[in-house]
Structure formats: C-alpha cells, structure tokens
Design goal:
The chain is α/β, with parallel strands linked by helices. It is built from 5 helices and 9 strands, in the order E-E-H-E-H-E-H-E-H-E-H-E-E-E. It is 24% helix and 31% strand. It has a 7-stranded mixed sheet with strand order 5-4-3-6-7-9-8, with helices on both faces. It has a two-stranded antiparallel sheet with strand order 1-2. The protein is globular.
C-alpha cells in the first residue's frame, strides 16, 4: 500500500501551527495541510469529512466554492476528489494566508483565494458553482440567510452543504440531514 507524500511548503517555517489535517482520499490522499494557530478555526473532523464526501460521491469536473473556509480542508478534499476549480472565501487574514500556502501542494487544480466577508461575496459574485461547502462558526451566523444567499450561486443540479451545530435552530427543511455528535451536515440540492 502506497501513500502520496507531499512536502510541507517552506513558507510555513516560523508560522505557529495549530494542527495537521490530512486529505482522506483521491489524488492527494495523505497530503498534510497545515493551519495557523487561531482560536477561531474549527476544522471539520476526519470522520465527518469522510462521511460527507462519501455522500457527495464523484466530484470530477466540478467547480466548488468553500465559504467560511477556515483551514480549507473541505475545499482541498474536493480538489483531491476531482474538482477542477475551488474558490476559497474567508474573512480571516491568517486563514486565507494559510489556505494559499497549502494550495502550493495542489497542482493542476484552479484555486482562487479570496479574503472577504462571505455574505458580501455571495451578493457580489456572478459565478455559479456545482458544489458549495459552508462551515461557518457554530452559532454565530444566520444559517437561514446563508442558505438563501448561497443557493442563488448554485448551478443546475448543484448542491449546498452547510455544517452546523445540532443545537442551532434553523430551517433545514428539504435538505438531507446527517448528525455526528454535535455536528449536523445539511445537503440541499437544486
């Protein structure tokens, strides 16, 4: 059994590192992502990522939007599983800097890195996406408003994934919902 081994970008030297996340499957399986030490970043657990991407299936040729990107793990997992383009949007300077540096490990995938408020981006964006991955800070974002805005950016047959806390009360009616401990994954399809 062999694993793809990818080096750590030298640009991370001297950056305080909080955690290592590994890509779970696909072309870049085993690639280790680094993220800066930031109290506001809560990466999606490996268990939840695996289950989510198993549900999503083949992403070959997909255009993906990863909003509230944080560590970028969801978008990079999509890239490893066949997405041809991934746009990362986060308002945090350190998060976007870290995602950009991790992007150096992913060749052959069109990656865009945008530091902007997610709601402002969704209002100004003219592009449509096959898959939108949203992992906002738990209990700090209006999830109904997020779903309403994000669905407008989906192309025909597109899917919106929102990760939230099971404690959050919002209208996920019409979504396929799975719960993993405190985490709820809601998948909407157009």
């Amino acid at each position: 059994m062999s694993a793809n081994i990818h080096p750590t970008p030298s640009s991370f030297i001297g950056m305080p590192i909080k955690a290592n996340l590994s890509i779970l499957a696909g072309t870049y399986k085993g690639t280790r992502l680094k993220m800066p030490d930031s109290a506001g970043t809560r990466p999606t657990s490996a268990r939840v990522r695996k289950s989510l991407f198993d549900m999503l299936g083949d992403l070959s040729g997909s255009s993906v939007l990863d909003i509230f990107s944080g560590s970028g793990a969801l978008g990079f997992e999509a890239a490893s599983r066949g997405a041809v383009s991934v746009t990362f949007v986060d308002s945090g300077r350190r998060a976007v800097e870290s995602i950009r540096k991790n992007g150096l490990l992913f060749h052959g995938v069109n990656l865009d890195f945008i530091r902007q408020d997610v709601f402002r981006f969704l209002k100004q964006c003219n592009s449509s996406f096959d898959l939108i991955l949203a992992d906002p800070p738990y209990e700090k974002v209006n999830l109904n408003g997020l779903a309403d805005q994000a669905i407008k950016r989906l192309g025909s047959g597109g899917r919106l994934v929102i990760e939230s806390s099971v404690r959050e009360k919002w209208n996920s009616e019409g979504a396929r919902v799975k719960k993993y401990g405190d985490t709820q994954i809601s998948i909407f399809s157009t």
